[in-house]
Write a structure and sequence with these properties.
The protein has 149 residues and is mainly alpha-helical. It has one domain: Orthogonal Bundle (N-utilizing Substance Protein B Homolog, Chain A), CATH 1.10.940.10. Helices cover 71% and strands 0% of the residues. It is built from eight helices and no strands. The longest helix is centred in the last third of the chain and has 18 residues. The chain is globular and about 40 Å long. Keywords: RNA-binding, Transcription, Transcription antitermination, Transcription regulation. GO terms for molecular function: RNA binding. Belongs to the NusB family.
Length: 149
């Protein structure tokens, strides 16, 4: 499994976590179990291989971080979503942006350009071209205004 695949799985799980009442740790324990990957693999090739320990740690760090900082990340999204009410933003688009913003803010080992380009690439699989352009614009504005290198 590549880091890009792990990032996409993290976006899936960040999205899915919106629909559960489980604590994020318990949710991740269930969703990252090899049995869960084996069950999902026939439906989605993304789950063909269960993550190794390093990949699982990366996914956990992303999803738990997104969960812990959801209000902060959503505030950034709302602030830069010009012309869109937060409620109008598709949940998968929000999940993708939260993952990228979390990487930019809290994972200094991830280059900012990689976080944004991967977010745009992942979003392209699930959202319309208009939404992908919107995501790219929000992330670029966020980086320009909030992150001072």
């Amino acid at each position: 499994m590549t880091r890009n695949t792990a990032r996409e799985i993290a976006a899936h799980l960040a999205y899915e976590w919106n629909f559960t009442d489980l604590p994020v740790g318990e949710f991740l324990d269930r969703r990252l179990a090899p049995e869960c990957f084996a069950e999902l693999a026939p439906e989605c090739g993304l789950y063909a291989d269960a993550p190794n320990a390093k990949q699982a740690q990366y996914i956990r760090r992303l999803v738990a971080g997104v969960a812990d900082h959801a209000a902060e990340l959503d505030d950034y999204i709302a602030r830069y979503a010009q012309g869109w009410r937060f409620e109008r933003i598709p949940l998968m688009a929000s999940a993708v942006m939260r993952v990228a913003m979390y990487e930019i803010l809290y994972m200094p080992d991830i280059p900012h350009g990689v976080a944004i380009s991967q977010a745009v690439q992942i979003a392209g699989k699930y959202e319309s071209a208009e939404v992908v352009k919107f995501i790219n614009g929000i992330l670029a504005s966020f980086l320009r205004e909030e992150v001072k290198d």
